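Hi there, hope your week has been kind to you so far. No rush at all, and the record is pasted right below.
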Amino acid sequence: MQVARLTFAARRCSDRPFRISPLTIYEAKFREKLTNNFQKTSGPNSDRSDNQHQPCLSDIEDVEDNKSRAGSIGCTSRWEQARPDVLALCRVLSTLSQSEEVSTEETMLTFNDILRKEKIDPRKVRLVRHHFTGHPERAKPYDLWLRRDGSLEKYQRIQKKPRFKVGGLLATFVVTPYGQTLFIGLYSVVGLEKVPAGVIDPISGKDVTGLHFYRTRPDKRLTEYMARLSINWGAAGQAWVQRAHKNEKPVTAIENYAEPPFPGFTKFTCDSNRVAEMPQRWREVLKNVKGVYLLVCKETGKQYVGSAKGDDSLWGRFLNYAENGHGGNVELKARGPRVYQMTVLEVVNSDSDAAVIEEAWKRKLMTRQFGLNRN
């Protein structure tokens, strides 16, 4: 009998790969299942943007199986102390290999496979995917989740229409700043009532008195996958509630998720139409500094030098551009809607420093002669 040694290599949109340690799987019949699964998630139906690298399966080599381990999931001394993500994946694969419900003809490791492994009927599960609202000043579902204060659960409970089934389960996901659809918990729907008077929606800030208000409670099953498992939601991004048994969602990663750290002012860039997706810790950094910044039009390459001073912070200025496209600048306003890449040229300590340094950068980059500065 042969076995497959598989090395999973996945990439985030920042081109930083994560790797699951070399994993020896003593069920060769699942090699094709896993290979096709991870290759499919890199195809055109992936729910990440084109510039993001998708998880893939590589470095496949056949090795002779030790007869004493034939027919079982084996361990080598190298990965007996592997990270929890490897062990979790092994448990799923071990269950799948022994299950008669899963055909060897299937080509995907899906979220439904994991539900079945935990003895959860996919027919009872609604998949719920919370995306950011697009308004840069409002909190995103991802931000609510980071608070860990029940805000996201409250937001999920409030619905304009009867979307969930009492007695059923909700598998909840949030979209991260990297575009991942990250699993954050399983919830039981135990009741439905009207929103009490005076309740405010955590994102819109509006009074939602009288809307549908579901009573939910956390379900401890799938806890080991919370904030670690990501799926490919597919092309139907607007369909944010779907029936699990009718939608096979390929698993794209099982890893410990961490919000990306601020890269430093030298490496920082952000497009003006993606400010709303900026990680919370990046926002906090920019809220606490003033400085001189550069906008580059992504259509023409023309540059604009500006500064954040007075009561403004760099975050405040970037937020203005995201909201109206011009930040109050006459020249930019006349150009109409454009997308600008925003970067920080220098951080300053005072308004006088900002004025001097801004002028120096305008001269260096010749943005009055060839760019978008008019003063």
